[in-house]
Amino acid sequence: MKKLIVFFSIIVTMAGFSAGVMAQATESTDVAANIVIPLAIAETASLHFGTMTVLAGTGGACVLSTQGVRTQTAGVNLSLQSPLASNAAYNVSGAVNTSYAITLPAKITVTCLSNKMTIGNLLARAASTGLDGLTGTLSAGGTDNFTIGGTLNVLPGQAAGLYTGTFNVTVVYN
Which residues contact 157 (CB under 8 A, 6 or more apart)? Predict the structure, then answer.
C-alpha cells in the first residue's frame, strides 16, 4: 500500500508540473522601420564679402547679413566696385515636411599669398523659417533653401588682393 501511495503521489506531482508547463500565452507584436530619402544640398552661390579698403593702421570688420546687407566697422570702407558681395546660398531637398539642421564652421580662414583673414559669426537663414538660425523645414514638395552670412575680420594694414578659401556646410534631419 505504501508503494501505491508513493506511486500515486509521484503521478499527481508530475501532472501538476505538466499542467504548469502547458499554460502559456503568445502575443504578436508589430515591428517597423522607416527609410527616408537622404537629404541633398546644392550650392547656388558662393560667399563673397565684396570689395573694400582698409585704413592704414586701423583694422575692422565687414559684416554680411544673411539677407545680403553689408555693414562696416572701424577702418574698413566698403566699395561698390566689382566683385560685389553675395551670400552663400543653397538648395536642400529630402523627405517632405521634415525639419533639418544646418551645421556651419566656427571660423573660416581665407588667404592671399601668405596673408590671412578670418570669417566668424556665421549664420544661416532658411526660407522656411525666415529667421536667422540653424534649422529649416522642407516643404510639402520636399525642398527648402537658405543663405549664409558672417563677419570678415580685417587686420590693420591688411595686404591688398583677392582672399579665398573653402568651408563645409552640412545638413541633417532633426
Answer: 54, 56, 57
pLDDT tens for 133-147 read 999 999 999 999 999
Number of C-beta neighbours around residue 34 at 10 A? 5
Q: Are 64 and 150 in contact (CB under 8 A)?
A: yes
108-142 burial: b if 16+ Cβ within 10 Å, else e: bebeeeeeebebeebbbbbebbeeeebbbbbeeeb
pTM score of the predicted model: 0.81
Report, in this order, helix, strand and coil percent for the chain, each rounded to 5: 10, 45, 45
- CA 119 to chain centroid: 18
- Rounded CA-CA distance 67/84 in Å is 14
